[in-house]
Every structure is written in C-alpha cells, then in structure tokens.
Write a structure and sequence with these properties.
With about 260 residues, the protein is an alpha+beta fold. It is about 25% helix and about 25% strand. It has a single domain, classed as Gcn5-related N-acetyltransferase (GNAT) (Aminopeptidase). Strands 1, 2, 3, 4, 5, 6, 7, 8 and 9 form a nine-stranded mixed sheet that branches. The N terminus is likely disordered. Bound molecules: coenzyme A (COA). The site of coenzyme A (COA) has 18 residues, from strand 4, helix 4 and helix 6.
C-alpha cells in the first residue's frame, strides 16, 4: 500500500496528495449524510430513484450492512462512495441473483443461507473528481473488507456507463464490445477488469421501474404522445409506454461481473 492507505498503483498518474483522501463508513461519520444528495444524486437519472424494491429496502442497508457502506472524504468534502450487501451464492451462473433488485431481496430474505458473497451494489464519484481512480479505490476497499470478514466471493451487477448510448443493443452484445487493444469499450467495465474482475453474463431484469405516463414525462423531461417504445436519456434499454393503461415500464439490464 502507498502512503495514505491507498493501493500502490494509485501513484504517479494522479497529481493530488494521496494522504488527504480518507475512507470512512457511514456508521462512523453520520455527519457526512448531509452531503450525499449534493455529491451523488445528480449522477443518476431521476427514474432510478423510483425503483420500488430499492426504495423499500435501501433505507435498511446502512444498518444491516454497515461495514460495506464506505465514503471517501477529501478535505471535509464527500468525493466518492460505494455500498454493498451480502448474500449466499454457490458461485454458479444459475444461482446468480436476477440483478440489483433480486440481490437486495436475497440479502434481506436470509433463507437460512450462509452469507458468503459480497454484492457491490453501487459506486459513485463526485463530478470534478472523476477520472482519478477513486472508483477503484472504493472497490478495493470493499473487496478488502469482504476478505477480512471471511467472505469467499465478490460480485457486481455493473451498470455500464456507455450502455445508455446503445439502448437498442442487447447487454449480451454490448458485453462483447472491445477496443483494438483488447480493453473493454465501456470505462466502468474497464475499471472492474483492471482490478481483475471477469464478466459472468447479463442480468436482463436487474431493476424494474414502473410509473404513470405523467411520472415518466416528469422523470425524463420528455413527452410520450403515443403508446410505444422510447429511447430515454440515461436509460440502458427502451421505456415502453402504454397510454391506454397509463403506464410506462423500464426494465434495466446490468452486467454481472465477478472479482477474484
Ligand atoms: C463510473 C464511475 C464510478 C467511475 O469512477 P472514476 O473514479 O471516475 O473511474 P476512473 O477514474 O477509474 O476512470 C475510469 C475510466 O473512465 C474515464 N472517465 C472517468 N470519468 C470521466 C469523465 N468525467 N469523462 C470522461 N471519461 C471519464 C477515465 O478516463 C477512465 O478511462 P480509462 O479506462 O481509459 O483510463 C464514475 O464515473 C461515476 O460516479 N459515474 C456516475 C455513477 C455511476 O454510473 N456509477 C456506476 C454504476 S453504480
């Protein structure tokens, strides 16, 4: 590890004093909560915040899984964060959770299974601090914590940054897109691969968001004059609107990756 507790590869390319970045848990620093909205909310599209499964279970995450809720602070400012949950997974593709929603449900359901796997549910870096390796920093912190707690596996339902530009392409196809040097086309998948993670396969129904036509118009700042499938900014797949039933449904695909 480099000075300041940072992994050794956080070296020369980044021109900021490493020791001024501190990693804390939300449990240790509840005072930082007040900054979360300002730091992170704008990084995701509004519709993401209307997933009923997440809205029901997320408020219990920090209490139930306090060791896997980490924040990076720089001179008193929250600059990055990540959180995860644990569950039982037998390391087979068949036993993978359906995605983000199902991982949350399984984490709280218990089902009598031993929790042996950390699922990294989200990571975010404040605007102005992106592109400096802070996401890898929080991922490594969570991996280290999982190892220290005796968890055998770490998986992630990855929301690839660039997928929203290709909503007509399946996640299975997008997962195959690589650059000439062999690295992945998507920067967020690249971060995971650089840390040694591999792609397991698509989570086709990772998260489901449903709303009235008026709600979708508000969330997306668009109009949906007729029933049909729409390309919505920051959505990884199409949003299907049915005006007669006054409903819009979005099924978000993610990509399961496993860290080793
Ligand atoms: C995805 C995210 C977590 C990556 O964090 P990060 O600390 O910026 O990641 P890195 O510094 O390792 O950069 C990763 C790659 O993205 C590129 N990148 C990062 N931020 C960028 C930006 N604002 N503009 C252009 N490229 C950027 C980097 O150059 C790097 O590319 P490389 O592989 O060619 O070197 C961050 O961009 C983010 O918070 N996004 C919004 C929330 C989100 O989508 N989270 C992930 C799903 S839960």
């Amino acid at each position: 590890m480099a000075p300041g507790g940072l992994p050794s590869h956080f070296g020369a390319p980044y021109h900021w004093p490493m020791s001024s970045y501190e990693i804390v848990t939300t449990r240790d620093r509840p005072d930082l909560h007040a900054q979360f909205d300002e730091a992170f909310r704008g990084l995701w599209p509004e519709f993401i915040f209307h997933d009923p499964v997440s809205n029901e279970l997320f408020p219990r995450v920090a209490t139930q899984f306090p060791d896997y809720d980490v924040t990076v602070v720089h001179e008193g400012v929250v600059v990055a964060g990540a959180w995860g949950v644990t569950l039982g997974w037998d390391a087979s593709i068949d036993d993978l959770p359906g995605g983000y929603d199902d991982a949350l449900v399984r984490a709280f359901a218990g089902l009598g299974r031993v929790h042996d796997t950390l699922v990294v549910m989200a990571a975010a870096v404040r605007q102005g601090y992106q592109g400096r390796g802070l996401a890898a920093l929080v991922l490594e912190e969570l991996r280290t914590r999982a190892l220290r707690s005796g968890l055998a596996r770490v998986i992630v339902p990855v929301r690839p940054t660039l997928k929203a530009r290709y909503p007509l392409t399946s996640m299975a196809e997008f997962a195959r897109w690589r650059r000439e040097d062999g690295s992945h086309l998507d920067p967020w998948i690249r971060v995971h691969e650089r840390l040694g993670a591999t792609i397991l396969g698509p989570a086709e129904k990772s998260m489901i968001v449903s709303g009235t036509v008026e709600e979708w118009e508000r969330w997306s700042a668009m109009r949906f004059p007729a029933s049909g499938a729409y390309v919505v900014p920051e959505a990884l797949d199409l949003v299907v609107v049915d005006r007669e039933r006054d409903i819009g449904i979005y099924i978000e695909p993610n990509l399961w990756m496993r860290h080793h």
